Amino acid sequence: MPGAEPFELAGAQAGILLLHGFSGSCSEIRALGRTLNEAGYGVFAPTLAGHGTSPSDLLNLRAEDFFASADAAYREARQRYARLYVVGLSLGGTLGLYLASRYPLEGIVTISAPVFMSRLVAWSVPFAKRWMPKRNVISNYSAWRGEVVGYRTTPISSIGVFMEVLAAVKSELSNVSVPVLVLHSTGDQTVPAANASYIASRVASTDKAVRVYPGGRHLLTLPPYLDAVQRDVIRFLHSREAPYATGPHAISKGAPL
After folding, report:
1. How many C-beta neighbours within 10 Å does residue 256 have?
2. In 3D, which of 145, 177, 157 has the Cα closest to residue 50?
3. N or C, where is the chain less crowded by C-beta within 10 Å?
4. Full pLDDT tens readout for the chain, 257 residues
5. Is residue 42 part of a domain?
6. Among 116, 165, 160, residue whose Cα is nearest residue 134
7. How many structural domains comprise the chain?
8. What is the rounded distance in angstroms from the CA atom of residue 1 to the CA atom of residue 86?
9. pTM
10. Residue 34: which residues within 8 A CB-CB, separation 6 or more?
11. Which domain holds residue 57?
């Protein structure tokens, strides 16, 4: 899909694996990626399994396929950077938590990330998946409005797989011990804001923080909320990069630490 292409912005020693959300694409994180690169970080933003092409490519996906695409993205990004962070939007943040539970990372930022959905969604999706798995349902209102490039509709079966991914990651949160910043908003009509405090309370990290913006929306990586998100993400990254601010391993450009 034009505009959904993965992208990479070269950096120095510190890099960011930047992950988009379910039914979305790299278009929804491209502006954030540019700003993070201008702040001195390399950015590697892949396309998740089944995304960026056609909703029909989600039909036969399993939860394992999402985890495998995250694993592959981690391995590729790790080859590029001595120090690696994950910043993930929505499902991208959930997959970032998955990676943090299994691999060495310098830190992770989740943005509007779920490990559970509302009771209505949790109840209705398994029922709908059983009786009409191939039926498409509206899944991305921002794509309908033309704000991002993504799937306007997705097969019900793929939403069931999405729920399986959340359940698996939720059960492994205690294995996350890296620094964590959890960002959410009270105006998120897609993912319950209660996910933010739940994630922070369940991870084993001693270095963790939560910020829940008043109002807002699910896609906090779009204006007018992007500025606040960029500021908080860069502050988190810079504070962890402070020991490398001078000498041969310093980040090479961008705002001062």
Report:
1. 7
2. 157
3. N
4. 999 999 999 988 899 999 999 999 999 999 999 999 999 999 999 999 999 999 999 999 999 999 999 999 999 999 999 999 999 999 999 999 999 999 999 999 999 999 999 887 777 777 666 666 677 777 888 888 889 999 998 998 999 999 999 999 999 999 999 999 999 999 999 999 999 999 999 999 999 999 999 999 999 999 999 999 999 999 999 999 998 875 444 444 433 33
5. yes
6. 160
7. 1
8. 24
9. 0.92
10. 9
11. 7-244
Return the half-sphere exposure (C-beta side, CA atoms, 13 A cut-off) of residue 165: 31
**Residues linked to residue 108 through DSSP beta bridges, in sequence order:** 86, 180
Read off the CATH number of the domain in which 147 is found.
3.40.50.1820
User: CA-to-CA distance for 118 and 253, rounded, in angstroms?
Assistant: 42
The answer for residues whose C-beta is within 8 angstroms of residue 111's C-beta and 6 or more apart is 87, 88, 89, 90, 92, 93, 183, 184, 220, 221, 229
Extract the tokens encoding 146.
Answer: 């033309």
